[in-house]
């Protein structure tokens, strides 16, 4: 072996790296979106750069994990300072960062939701979902059945896969006896004909509540007033499902049903948390109080894994959820908690609530203008800087996955042009039919970069439609 090849100062060319990847890397931990897979070399702000130093405007920012831009100086400096102070400590011991971060989130939740609560940490979103499953099963006497939404996504560990609606994530891994019961989610663009979005929302809630009408509907024992199900896992805005935004009345009406029948609402903020929608938590837009809230991704701007849950006091206090109820070696690690605290402080100091809402309106206006010029854009919508564009056939409705796949390939080829130079575009594909561009740009994206994004999308669509 050439030991020099192990040095980070030695640049190995793309062809050699791809040959080694094909031989030594499991493909099970990633997805090869394009052939050959793309290799990037460095990143800054809203851009990542390939081996030819071509800039790629990133409109998905690591699935909304890098909300505050690549190489954010304030956050990078905080990480460097923590490395020199307390880089590691076993999770059975305490350190200031963990306690401060937990207090910050809990105090903020008390202000917004009016409830006392506590925070509990882990290292990844799916792991936090797993911890929340333990929490709600414990709180509901061991009940292991959950409700979740059609189109919902909560991760790919075994427990998280059981409440994620896509069968393809479970297909090869045996029988899931505790698979969730999946409930329709109001998808405004694809609502039944003749219904307003609000009427569709009402119909979805009524359909759900019918499950509790009699014992023969299968989930409720009226003699003892007890449900078979412990909790309902919700994304306020569906992430992988295509950034579907429900009508504002939906969660208010749903929560009334859940409270009536003693079912906990677990809100998954892993993708939409930390000002992606213009609020710290996206559920704040919808006027309801969660029982449990799960977070991750952008808490550390992608620099060091940290996730967690907030839950109301009666569910998580040490008497009912004692030490050792869950464990991860790296939970509440000092690098991650230092970054998390800095992210929350920075978000409020720099007023991301106002800034994200304003930039989101500008981006959405650009998408609507683009929609007027391309009949293949069937729907655009957004909340803050969580935006969607649904790619269709020229009837403006029939899903067109093939066209979007061509767009992704062209964007990652790096052959678009801006001011006479090559540029690329990084897009994320989502949606029930895999025909939705889910936009999650940096929250620090400039107005000029938003305008550039719209111009590049215009180029991309024009080229992709040529076949």
TrEMBL record:
Q: Does the keyword Membrane apply?
A: no
Full protein name: Adenosylmethionine-8-amino-7-oxononanoate aminotransferase
Q: Which family does it belong to?
A: Belongs to the class-III pyridoxal-phosphate-dependent aminotransferase family.
**Pfam families from the entry?**
Aminotran_3
Q: Which InterPro entries does this chain map to?
A: Aminotrans_3, Aminotrans_3_PPA_site, Class-III_PLP-dep_AT, PyrdxlP-dep_Trfase, PyrdxlP-dep_Trfase_major, PyrdxlP-dep_Trfase_small
Q: Which cofactor does it need?
A: pyridoxal 5'-phosphate
Q: Which UniProt keywords apply?
A: Aminotransferase, Pyridoxal phosphate, Transferase
The source's domain of life comes to: Bacteria
A single Gene Ontology MF term assigned here is: transaminase activity
Q: Which PROSITE patterns match?
A: AA_TRANSFER_CLASS_3 (PS00600)
């Amino acid at each position: 072996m050439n030991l020099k090849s192990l040095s980070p100062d030695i640049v190995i060319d793309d062809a050699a790296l791809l040959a080694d990847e094909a031989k030594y890397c499991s493909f099970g931990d990633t997805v090869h979106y394009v052939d050959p897979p793309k290799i990037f070399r460095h990143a800054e702000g809203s851009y990542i750069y390939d081996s030819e130093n071509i800039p790629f405007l990133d409109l998905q920012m690591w699935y909304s994990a890098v909300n505050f831009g690549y190489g954010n100086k304030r956050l990078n400096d905080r990480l460097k300072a923590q490395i020199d102070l307390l880089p590691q400590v076993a999770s059975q011991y305490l350190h200031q960062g963990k306690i401060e971060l937990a207090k910050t989130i809990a105090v903020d939740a008390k202000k917004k939701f009016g409830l006392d609560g506590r925070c509990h940490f882990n290292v990844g979103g799916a792991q936090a979902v797993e911890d929340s499953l333990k929490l709600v099963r414990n709180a509901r006497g061991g009940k292991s059945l959950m409700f979740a939404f059609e189109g919902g996504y909560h991760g790919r560990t075994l427990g998280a896969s059981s409440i994620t609606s896509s069968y393809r994530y479970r297909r090869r891994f045996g029988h899931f006896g505790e698979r969730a019961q999946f409930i329709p989610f109001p998808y405004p663009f694809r609502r039944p004909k003749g219904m307003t979005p609000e009427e569709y929302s009402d119909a979805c809630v009524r359909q759900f509540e019918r499950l509790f009408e009699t014992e023969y509907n299968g989930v409720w024992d009226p003699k003892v007033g007890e449900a078979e199900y412990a909790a309902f896992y919700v994304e306020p805005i569906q992430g992988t499902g295509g950034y579907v935004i429900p009508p504002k009345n939906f969660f208010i009406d749903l929560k009334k049903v859940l409270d009536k029948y003693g079912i906990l609402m677990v809100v998954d903020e892993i993708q939409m948390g930390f000002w992606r929608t213009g609020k710290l938590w996206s559920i704040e837009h919808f006027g309801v109080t969660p029982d449990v809230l799960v977070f991750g991704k952008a808490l550390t701007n992608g620099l060091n894994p940290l996730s967690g849950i907030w839950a109301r006091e009666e569910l998580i206090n040490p008497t009912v959820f004692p030490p050792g109820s869950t464990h991860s070696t790296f939970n509440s690690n000092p690098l991650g908690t230092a970054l998390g605290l800095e992210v929350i402080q920075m978000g409020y100091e720099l007023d991301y609530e106002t800034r994200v809402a304003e930039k989101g309106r500008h981006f959405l206006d650009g998408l609507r203008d683009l929609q007027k010029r391309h009949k293949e854009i069937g729907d655009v919508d957004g909340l803050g800087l969580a935006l969607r564009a649904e790619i269709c056939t020229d009837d403006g409705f029939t899903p067109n996955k093939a066209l979007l796949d061509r767009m992704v390939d062209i964007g990652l080829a790096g052959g678009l042009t801006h001011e006479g130079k090559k540029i690329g575009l990084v897009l994320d594909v989502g949606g029930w039919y895999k025909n939705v561009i889910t936009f999650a740009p940096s929250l620090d994206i400039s107005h000029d970069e938003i305008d550039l994004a719209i111009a590049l999308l215009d180029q991309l669509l024009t080229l992709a439609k040529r076949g």
